[in-house]
């Protein structure tokens, strides 16, 4: 928490200095233009984004490594850290609760949509005949039923999509998405999910589009606040899965995912607690063995 306060103080100080310097030279311009811009950006960084994250918005560990840079896009029900260089979301974060029996189902869109915020304008057609599925990071099923139709449409933006082999997307990944909303939410009232791709060298891009890099694996991190403290569970799933493996085969530590991705998760936790939680591998609070072999829907 001390680090969080220090970051906020530094940000506010830098904002004040910038506004003061420009305002001193151009007082009218500063009032008419800079104040709304600074106010909007301050709201985005200090309030809106943290409210959609758990213990800090994921960030790069090494600021000068461009392959870990991302631009943050807030959508209905989830938030994306998107890499225009890689043509992939590097992380996606959302929160799930138990879906009510009377939750409204929404018809699945026929196609995926280009996100106007992206620089390379990746489209539905970029994946056509690529040999890969258009893999959702924020899932259509849970997001649409928990957050509504607009949220569902946002999950079909190409900035939420990454190349996944069919056995991964339609089997293991689908099983994880079902377990998180149908089972984990019965154990823990609210579950935070952070998910995204993992890459390795050399760079490998879709044969149908040079704009999209192909991941080697994918991660999911679950976090929940309980009466006995914060519980975490992490998975690392390679593209080469058959699809029927038990989910217990893919358990790793959060530290492992941070090492592979170059990202820093949960950085607003006190350092000793963060170190302990991210190093641990403890599936017991999630009763994973009872659901590890559930079949896929497809």
Automatic annotation (TrEMBL):
One of its GO terms (molecular function) is hydrolase activity. Pfam families: Endonuclease_NS. The keyword Acetylation does not apply. Keywords: Endonuclease, Hydrolase, Metal-binding, Nuclease. Mg(2+) binds at residue 169. Residues 74-272 form the DNA/RNA non-specific endonuclease/pyrophosphatase/phosphodiesterase domain. The active site is at 136 (proton acceptor). The keyword Cytoplasm does not apply. Residues 75-272 form the ENPP1-3/EXOG-like endonuclease/phosphodiesterase domain. This is DNA/RNA non-specific endonuclease. It comes from Methylotuvimicrobium alcaliphilum (strain DSM 19304 / NCIMB 14124 / VKM B-2133 / 20Z).
């Amino acid at each position: 928490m001390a680090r969080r306060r220090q970051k906020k103080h530094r940000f506010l100080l830098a904002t004040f200095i910038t506004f003061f310097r420009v305002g001193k030279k151009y007082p009218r311009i500063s009032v008419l233009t800079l104040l709304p811009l600074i106010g909007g950006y301050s709201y985005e960084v200090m309030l809106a984004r943290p409210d959609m994250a758990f213990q800090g918005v994921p960030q790069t560990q090494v600021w000068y490594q461009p392959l870990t840079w991302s631009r943050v896009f807030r959508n209905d029900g989830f938030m994306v850290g998107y890499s225009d260089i890689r043509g992939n979301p590097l992380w996606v974060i959302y929160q799930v609760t138990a879906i009510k029996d009377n939750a409204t189902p929404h018809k699945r869109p026929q196609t995926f949509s280009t996100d106007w915020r992206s620089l390379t304008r990746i489209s539905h057609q970029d994946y056509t005949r690529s040999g890969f599925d258009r893999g959702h990071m924020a899932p259509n099923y849970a997001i649409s039923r928990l957050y509504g139709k607009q949220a569902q449409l946002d999950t079909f933006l190409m900035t939420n999509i990454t190349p996944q082999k069919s056995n991964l997307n339609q089997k293991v990944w689908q099983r994880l998405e079902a377990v998180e909303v149908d089972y984990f939410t019965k154990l823990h009232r609210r579950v935070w999910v952070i998910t995204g791709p993992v890459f390795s060298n050399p760079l490998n891009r879709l044969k149908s589009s040079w704009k999209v890099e192909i991941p080697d694996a994918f991660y999911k991190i679950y976090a929940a606040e309980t009466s006995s403290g914060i519980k975490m569970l992490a998975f690392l799933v390679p593209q080469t899965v058959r699809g029927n493996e038990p989910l217990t085969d893919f358990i790793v530590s959060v530290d492992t995912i941070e090492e592979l991705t170059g990202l820093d998760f949960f950085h607003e936790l006190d350092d000793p607690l963060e170190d302990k939680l991210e190093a641990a591998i403890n599936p017991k609070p999630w009763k994973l063995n009872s659901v590890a072999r559930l079949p896929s829907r497809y």
